[in-house]
Amino acid sequence: ILNVEQSPQSLHVQEGDSTNFTCSFPSSNFYALHWYRWETAKSPEALFVMTLNGDEKKKGRISATLNTKEGYSYLYIKGSQPEDSATYLCARNAGNMLTFGGGTRLMVKP
Amino acid sequence: NAGVTQTPKFQVLKTGQSMTLQCAQDMNHEYMSWYRQDPGMGLRLIHYSVGAGITDQGEVPNGYNVSRSTTEDFPLRLLSAAPSQTSVYFCASSLVTGTGYYEQYFGPGTRLTVT
């Protein structure tokens, strides 16, 4: 994998559904993997920064896992709420540069 | 503590004009960066700096210059604006360690249109 790739590009779920998205990245020269939440007309806000293979982070209903050997991270949202509607970005930190994926746009219907 | 501030919020330029987008942070962060956000392309790194006096190119540096004379400020200069530079520009900052970076703090963005 040459770039940071996120899937799916967009996702519609019903309130209460649990969901997950994928971030795939080159596993070489890896420093850290970042997740950001980006609401429309606002700035991206950090959710997690993960550095170690096997890392798991949790913040409320949102959690993330990291596999640096195979180059992927999963973001999970348990019991989605309308306020979770946003674009979720992941970024790979290698050396001095952050490379962002294209994002997963989540829309939660009440 | 204002965090990361950017000015202006909106700007319209004509092709060939030059301008400077301002970015400042008051968190004493070593690392600062500029991104552009285009539909369907996520955030792309233009230039970054790991400290005062040190700058380097990101993924899409052509047409932009930066300087870092102080820890607080990291202006982005468009030398001769082109319609392809129409975008939303975000400045970000973070602490930096030898093993990677802390989370980035983003400014509110500058929406630039080049006609």
The stretches of 5 or more residues of chain A where confidence is low (pLDDT under 50) are: none
The span between the termini of chain A is: 37 Å
Low-confidence stretches of chain B: none
Order of helices and strands of chain B: EEEEEEEEEEEEE
What is the number of E strands of chain A? Answer: 11
Overall mean pLDDT of chain B: 93
- Report the span from N to C terminus of chain B: 36 Å
Structural class of chain B: mainly beta
Instruction: Give the SSE string of chain A.
Output: EEEEEEEEEEE
> What percent of the residues of chain A sit in helical stretches (DSSP H or I)?
under 10%
- The oligomeric state of the chains shown is heterodimer
Written account of the structure:
In chain A, about 0% of the residues lie in helices and about 55% in strands. Chain A has about 110 residues and is mainly beta. In chain A, a hairpin with a 2-residue loop joins β9 (about 85-95) and β10 (about 95-100). The mean pLDDT of chain A is about 95. Chain B is mainly β and about 120 residues long. Chain B contains no helices and 13 strands. In chain B, strands 2, 4, 5, 6, 9, 12 and 13 form a 7-stranded mixed β-sheet that branches. In chain B, about 35% of the residues are buried. The mean pLDDT of chain B is about 95. The interface between A and B is medium-sized, with 22 and 26 residues.
Primary descriptors:
heterodimer, A: 110 residues, mainly beta, six-stranded mixed sheet, five-stranded antiparallel sheet, 0% helix, globular, B: 115 residues, seven-stranded mixed sheet, four-stranded antiparallel sheet
